[in-house]
Write a structure and sequence with these properties.
heterodimer, A: 481 residues, alpha+beta, Cytochrome Bc1 Complex, Chain A, domain 1, 2 domains, eight-stranded mixed β-sheet, five-stranded mixed β-sheet, 16 helices, 13 strands, B: 531 residues, six-stranded mixed β-sheet
Chain lengths: 481, 531
């Protein structure tokens, strides 16, 4: 009977970080052998058409999960990434367009998301609602989402429906059909979505205000759902310009993961998408001004809130910044889990809060980091007392840093997160598409793990002093009675 | 209606919805989960979501439903058919290995070696049906310390390896779960076993856990969907039925005593009253020594000491004799949250498949009639779905939606119209076939991950389904005849349903009286007290 911990000796990293103390630590160090991502240019199948270029392969490997992603680019600029996995007869497809709410014009907030809805209202050969009908009836699922940075469409279907999925996605990219009636219908649907998911739920409005304020004056300074008046002001004529600017093959990345054959995908994608004309290259996004850090203090009354909610945060760095990894680990050490520094104190030892959670990555975007913690106080505990505890704990890290064991714990947590995300075809396809689009790295999820592994306790102390300054962003949401 | 339900098996899948609505201490129902959900919701807008906030898919236009192999008439023009599918590949429900320890603990193993992750679920046959508060608190208190480990020590040990360990009580069963890298399974199982076998239930922790439970309760009671579900079940089920308990109060949480929690734990948390599901990057050979070491000495129960299944006390269920609309008044609400439904059947009833098809056709997804008509054509809502709630005892059929306050009447009229139609008309052949194909075709998507398979195995064990249930599941659906849809609807989708509306009472009351003139209206306040 093999011992579990010894079952994969070849995956151990040759250099284990720091002297171990205790069996659990040793085991984790062994399991967390992260092998680096390596990029190789590989020969592609020769049968493919001349319109297909820039073939290659990127392999990432961590803990025995290998991501062997092949890619090609069509003559019109569409980048396609394929990862074969034949364990279940299904596959996931993501197509990401490099446009989000930060690209919206003043007075047209919410338009990127409203446009996403229009992509389901029919095109040259597909009737209104056809995407849902055809995919659902095949037993598949589909959806789309819009963030500040990206608009992404995805399907998960049994593998024998590859042709249909490619047909559906290529048809709307080629020939989206827009009518006034459809546009009105979706404007109403979006307003309904706003009413149900944003306006009728506690805390949401206040949190949106908080994060928008933090980035006022930049593309992140408004919400993705947009304002009621801007949604009302949007016109059918705005659609075509947006479509021509952003919905072009050279502004998109496609990822297909699952029970597919690479050569067949290359041939069929070329057939369906190859003759869609290239569009203009999109203009670079304006730089985000990171100079304004704070302080920001706000109290908002919320008639829907059943109890108070406090937020304490700092502006940090974009996700591509080298300091992103240490900042993320720092917030983990401070707030993630009942054994983290601040949560343990506030929740179990002093019983000042009933919940304490990190909100890393929330509210910003790839170019605008906010690190924050959210706290639900126990009855009778005010914001000032909680702030004092947070300040003291942050102060300790600034002065003395963290232990190697705390660092290893945070890395272990991030590792399990990543591995869990990669358990589904859909998770892998989402990650590959975004990795390729934002970082030119389809195995970014694994590369990111590699960057966490390189963080040292010294880095943590440095970023704590650099970013967790006295320029706090604080929000106090109080129930309105 | 079933006559009697044996105690074992008395399990329930944690993937299923039935938990005590307002006191569900699962990670999803926890305050941490709900705050995380709120924050996560800020990030992205998506094309569709169901009322619980999970993303799902909306649907196409209604009318005669084309199949992908035909030319589809829609919007007055003819559309080309989509490319046909290639040959389907076989889907096989994976093998489930099992072994039993001498103590009676049965272990099931579902292998999936794609990623080096393992999940463990220890399913104990006791739940909120036995005692709502004691079941919930026994589960919550497990992690508060053991004879050899403080809570801080437990937290540090599992969090250090990036794993998770927790427990929650569902209606039929309580589940202790762990998730970790495969190489840390030994640690996870030892910690889990320690919590289950040697908890100390420290008195000081009880007060803290009560504070947390009360904060969660306040959050839950602020959600119109929770209020609607709680009241709906309370009205549908006979008084005292475990599926239809009234909402907990802060006073009822305060009244929980530690000796009772200890007694509950000691009665039910026994090796032969539980089973363990292991899934992921693990084999039976690897699992056996780990399980033996962790659980080998877990005490067993004398079968006569296990209380009978409390659902057996309910042998008769009555249906309403008049139409009553139960209105929960939330004067500030801009939307009405609606439930319409009735008592239906137990999960292991032979009519389950036929009702599943009827439900799918009426409201099971975005292609269904309710969504197509009331969302797509009439823009009355962002989403409307129906489902059949599984249970060891009869579950419910329920339609759920939200609509703006002024369109509450129109929505109710629309729902009643669709109920009448499915009860009186056979569906068109093509609509029926598309529905069955959708249900059958989605199966590969339901068995992709180890966690999904575990959910299915658990469901089979919980509800006493046949051993080969998932192997033959698609055949069972495919065998449903068109004529059975109307028959199932007549029997399980009632013309005289229970209706719950959570919203602005002053504005919805006249609308209800207009569209449902025979209905009696009963009003409640925001704490579900009758006005």
């Amino acid at each position: 009977m093999p011992e579990l911990t010894d079952s994969r000796p070849s995956r151990r990293h040759p250099i284990e970080p720091r002297p171990p103390r205790g069996a659990a630590w040793r085991r984790a160090a062994a399991t967390l052998a992260v092998l680096g991502a390596l990029v190789t240019g590989a020969a592609a199948p020769s049968s493919a058409s001349a319109a297909v270029s820039a073939r290659g392969e990127t392999t990432g490997s961590v803990l025995g999960i290998e991501m062997k992603v092949k890619h090609f680019t069509l003559g019109n600029g569409l980048r396609v990434f394929v990862l074969e996995d034949h364990s279940t007869p299904m596959f996931a497809m993501h197509i990401a367009y490099h446009v989000g709410s930060r690209d919206e014009q003043p007075g047209r907030t919410g338009f990127a998301h409203l446009f996403e809805h229009m992509m389901f209202k029919g095109s040259g050969s597909v009737p209104d609602g056809g995407h849902f009908k055809y995919i659902n009836e095949a037993g598949g699922t589909l959806n789309a989402f819009t963030t500040a940075d990206v608009t992404q469409y995805h399907e998960v279907v049994p593998s024998h429906y590859l042709d249909m999925v490619l047909w559906l996605e290529s048809d709307r990219l080629r020939s989206l059909a827009v009518t006034d009636e459809n546009f009105e219908n979706q404007r109403a649907a979006v307003k309904e979505e706003k009413a149900m998911r944003y306006d009728n739920r506690p805390y949401i409005k206040a949190l949106r205000t908080f994060f928008s304020d933090a980035w006022a004056g930049t593309g992140y300074g408004h919400t993705t759902i947009g304002s009621e008046e801007d949604l009302s002001a949007a016109a059918t004529s705005d659609i075509q310009g947006f479509f021509d600017t952003y919905y072009v093959p050279n502004n998109a990345v496609m990822a297909i993961v699952g029970d597919v054959d690479y050569a067949e995908v290359e041939r069929k994608v070329d057939e369906r998408f190859g003759n869609i004309p290239r569009g203009p290259d999109r203009a670079p996004r304006p730089a985000i001004d990171h100079s304004m850090r704070g302080p920001y203090v706000r109290t908002i009354e919320d008639p829907l809130a059943p109890q108070p909610l406090y937020l304490i945060g700092w502006k940090t760095v974009p996700t591509h910044d080298p300091d992103h990894a240490p900042v993320r680990i720092l917030m983990s050490v401070l707030l993630r889990g009942d054994s983290s520094r601040i949560t343990r104190l506030l929740k179990d030892e002093r019983r000042m809060v009933v919940a304490s959670v990190p909100t890393e990555g929330i509210g910003g975007g790839i170019d605008a980091g906010v690190a924050a913690g959210a706290f639900v106080p126990s009855p009778g505990h005010g914001f000032d007392a909680i702030k004092a505890v947070v300040k003291a704990e942050v102060g300790k890290v600034k002065k003395r840093g963290i232990s190697p064991k705390e660092l290893q714990k945070a890395i272990n947590q991030l590792t399990v997160d990543t591995v869990s995300d990669l358990a589904t075809n859909n998770g892998r396809a989402r990650g590959i598409a975004q990795g390729a689009l934002f970082y030119d790295d389809p195995v970014h999820a694994l590369s990111e793990l590699e960057s966490y592994r390189k963080v040292t306790p010294k880095d943590i102390k440095r970023v704590a002093n650099r970013y967790l300054t006295d320029d706090w962003l604080t929000l106090e949401i109080v129930p309105k009675r | 209606m079933p006559t009697s339900i044996a105690r074992p098996p008395r399990q329930q899948s944690n993937a299923l919805r039935r938990t005590s609505a307002a006191l569900a201490p699962s990670s999803r129902g926890s305050i941490r989960g709900s705050i995380g959900g709120v924050l996560g919701g800020l990030l992205a807008c998506s094309i569709a979501c169901n009322p619980t906030g999970e993303t799902v898919t909306p649907g196409p236009k209604p009318g005669p439903s084309p199949t992908p192999t035909e030319t589809a008439p829609a919007q007055g023009r003819r559309w080309p058919a989509p490319p046909p599918p290639t040959a389907p590949k076989p889907v096989r429900f994976p093998d489930v290995a099992s072994f039993q320890l001498p103590t009676g603990l049965t272990v099931y193993i579902i292998e999936n070696h794609e990623v080096p992750i393992v999940s463990a679920q220890l399913v104990v046959r006791c739940g909120t049906m036995d005692d709502e508060f004691l079941a919930a608190f026994a589960a919550r208190m497990l992690g508060q310390g053991t004879q050899s480990r403080t809570k801080a020590k437990l937290d540090e040990a599992i969090e250090f390896v990036g794993g998770s360990l927790g427990a929650f009580a569902g209606t039929h069963v309580s589940t202790v779960f762990a998730h970790s890298l495969a190489s840390d399974l030994k640690l996870a199982l030892l910690l889990m076993a320690d919590e289950v076998q040697n908890p100390v239930f420290p008195p000081a922790a009880l007060d803290k856990v009560k504070q947390e439970a009360k904060a969660e309760l306040r959050n839950q009671m602020a959600q119109p969907g929770v209020l609607a579900d709680t009241l709906f079940n309370q009205v549908v089920y006979p008084e005292g039925h475990p599926y239809g308990r009234p909402a907990p109060t802060e006073a009822s949480i305060d009244a929980i005593g530690l000796p009772d929690v200890r007694r509950f734990h000691s009665t039910f948390y026994r090796a032969n009253n539980a089973f363990l599901l292991l899934s992921g990057d693990i084999t039976a050979e690897q699992a056996r020594p780990l399980v033996e070491r962790a659980f080998g000495t877990w005490a067993t129960a004398e079968l006569r000491d296990l209380p009978p299944n409390p659902l057996n006390r309910f042998t008769r269920y009555t249906l309403p004799s008049e139409l009553v609309v139960h209105v929960v008044d939330r004067p500030d609400a801009t939307q009405s949250t609606i439930r319409v439904g009735n008592l239906a059947l137990a999960r292991n009833h032979e009519d389950w498949a036929a009702l599943a098809v009827a439900n799918q056709l009426l409201g099971g997804g975005p292609n269904a009639r309710l969504f197509q008509d009331l969302r797509e054509d009439r823009s009355l809502t962002y989403g409307i779905y129906s489902h059949v709630e599984p249970g060891q005892a009869p579950g419910t059929f329920v339609i759920e939606t939200q609509t703006r306050t002024p369109t509450t009447g129109a929505m109710l009229a629309g729902i009643f119209g669709h109920i009448a139609r499915i009860r009186t008309e056979d569906p068109q052949r093509i609509e029926f076939e598309n529905t069955v194909r959708e249900l059958v075709g989605s199966f590969p998507l339901q068995v992709e991950t180890a966690d999904q398979i575990v959910g299915k195995v658990n469901e089979q064990l919980v509800y006493g389904l046949p051993r080969d249930y998932w192997r033959t599941y698609r055949d069972g659906l495919a065998q449903v005849e068109l004529s059975e849809v109307r028959k199932a609807a007549q029997q399980y989708i009632h013309a005289l349903p229970v209706v719950v509306v959570v919203g602005n009472a002053a504005e919805v009351r006249p609308q209800i009286q207009e569209v449902l003139p025979t209905a009696k209206v009963i009003e409640y306040d925001g704490q579900l007290r009758k006005k």
